[in-house]
Amino acid sequence: MLPSDGSHPPIAAPLPNVDTERLELRRFEEGDLDELARVFSHREVWQFPYDRALSRDETAAFLETQIREWDTYGFGCWIAIEKARASVIGYLGISVPAFVPEILPAVEVGWRLEPAAWGKGYASEGAVAALTEAFSTLQLDEVCSLPQAINPASAAVCERIGMRLERTIKFPANDRRGELDGLLYKITREEFQPC
Ligand SMILES: CC(C)(COP(=O)(O)OP(=O)(O)OC[C@H]1O[C@@H](n2cnc3c(N)ncnc32)[C@H](O)[C@@H]1OP(=O)(O)O)[C@@H](O)C(=O)NCCC(=O)NCCS
User: Fold this and answer.
1) 120 alpha carbon to ligand 1 midpoint, in Å?
2) Distances (CA, A) of 163 to 50, 62, 72, 86, 127
3) How far is CA 184 from the centre of its chain?
4) pLDDT at residue 193, rounded to an integer
5) Ligand 1 proximity of 21 Cβ (cutoff 6 Å)
6) Could you say which residues of the chain have pLDDT below 50?
7) pLDDT at 181
8) What is the predicted pLDDT for the residue at 13?
9) What is the pLDDT of residue 194?
10) Domain map of the chain by residue range?
11) Tell me, what's the pLDDT at 52?
12) CATH number for the domain running over 18-188
């Protein structure tokens, strides 16, 4: 097992890049800023939790955080590239849900795609790949997901990939938003059935 700072369970090995049928899923790189800023310029992408687009500077800060977290933990969300168009459509995968301290140590699976990529099954396809890696390569026992209570499209991805709703939960306020109502979904290695 690789050492953990206590914010997540120990992992057996770092997360690799992965290809699915329709997506290339890889670590964020410094050179992703232009493509990511294009995706984050759509208000809908950050409707939950901010209800506005992200600026280029905010996107750059986000990108730096992703790269640093992956270096720290040995895993993080992948940037998602649609193979058919060789174009970035957003990001998804596993990360530490540091915004909800009460459930740490934990690993969360999440997704955030541009509107043109919705309704095609991409979030579920990538999330299944993330759970596969979490339970095989990383050898985690359990993964959670934390959609906002007012985001049914995100909760539907949880249901689609076989996660079970455990309870409602509060996301504490931070310097960018107030307290939010969320849903705590979970899935164990035994419950996960990759399709
Ligand atoms: C949350 C989000 C990722 C959900 O995207 P999504 O496209 O609805 O989810 P999926 O990838 O699971 O796709 C499922 C849909 O694709 C359809 N679909 C079409 N082709 C498909 C295929 N080949 N395989 C599977 N599903 C397919 C399904 O029927 C389903 O449509 P429906 O909802 O009308 O029944 C998306 O709304 C999003 O990025 N929102 C903004 C960011 C956000 O809120 N993130 C979560 C923060 S908590």
Assistant:
1) 6
2) 25, 27, 27, 30, 11
3) 14
4) 87
5) no
6) none
7) 98
8) 98
9) 79
10) 18-188
11) 97
12) 3.40.630.30
Q: What are phi and psi of 174, to 5 degrees?
A: -135, -170
- Alpha-carbon distances, residue 73 vs 7, 45, 89, 152 (angstroms): 9, 26, 24, 30
pLDDT of residue 195: 67
Ligand 1 proximity of 126 Cβ (cutoff 6 Å): no
**Cα(93) to centroid(ligand 1), Å:** 14
Rounded CA-CA distance 185/187 in Å is 7
User: What are 97-103's contacts with CB under 8 Å, separation 24+?
Assistant: 97/144, 97/146, 98/7, 99/171, 99/172, 99/174, 100/146, 100/169, 100/171, 100/172, 100/182, 101/172, 102/169, 103/144, 103/169, 103/184
DSSP string, 65-94: HHHHHHHHHS--EEEEEETTTTEEEEEEEE
Decide if 194 contacts 128 (C-beta within 8 A).
Answer: yes
Q: Which atom of ligand 1 is nearest to the CA of 160?
A: 12
Residue 180, ligand 1, Cβ within 6 A:
no
| Distant-in-sequence, close-in-space partners of 145: CB < 8 Å, separation ≥ 6 | 108, 109, 110, 157, 158, 163, 185, 186
195 lines ligand 1 (CB under 6 A): no
